[in-house]
Task: inverse folding
């Protein structure tokens, strides 16, 4: 099983980006998925998470601006980021709890998000 993150880039403050995390492989099912970010000199933090039945959770700093969603058929989890702020600049990672058949955590490679002021 592999996770592929995409969609990062450079955007001005107030703009939007959409990140996507795609799982590939065979014989697996995705449980919970989270998007994390790590800014230079800071610890990695959870930004948003979604459970297998669609319940969501957001960091206080992004609540109301970011939306996490999943497409179980496509095995993707997206993070729509609106009203971006320079403080959102970081490398974003997706993390998934996957059963294949044993349950373990997988990380995607990071994707850079840079928000200019």
Result:
């Amino acid at each position: 099983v592999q996770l592929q993150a995409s969609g990062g880039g450079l955007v001005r403050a107030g703009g939007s980006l959409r990140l996507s995390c795609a799982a590939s492989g065979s014989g697996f099912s995705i449980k919970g998925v989270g998007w994390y970010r790590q800014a230079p000199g800071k610890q990695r933090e959870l930004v948003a998470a979604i459970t297998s039945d669609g319940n969501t959770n957001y960091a206080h700093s992004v609540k109301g601006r970011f939306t996490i969603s999943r497409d179980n058929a496509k095995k993707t989890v997206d993070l729509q980021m609106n009203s971006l702020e320079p403080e959102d600049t970081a490398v974003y990672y997706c993390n998934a709890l996957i059963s294949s058949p044993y349950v373990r955590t997988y990380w995607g490679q990071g994707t850079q998000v840079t928000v200019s002021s």
Notes: The chain has a mean pLDDT of 95. The first strand starts at residue 2 and ends at 6. The CA atoms of residues 3 and 108 lie 5 Å apart.
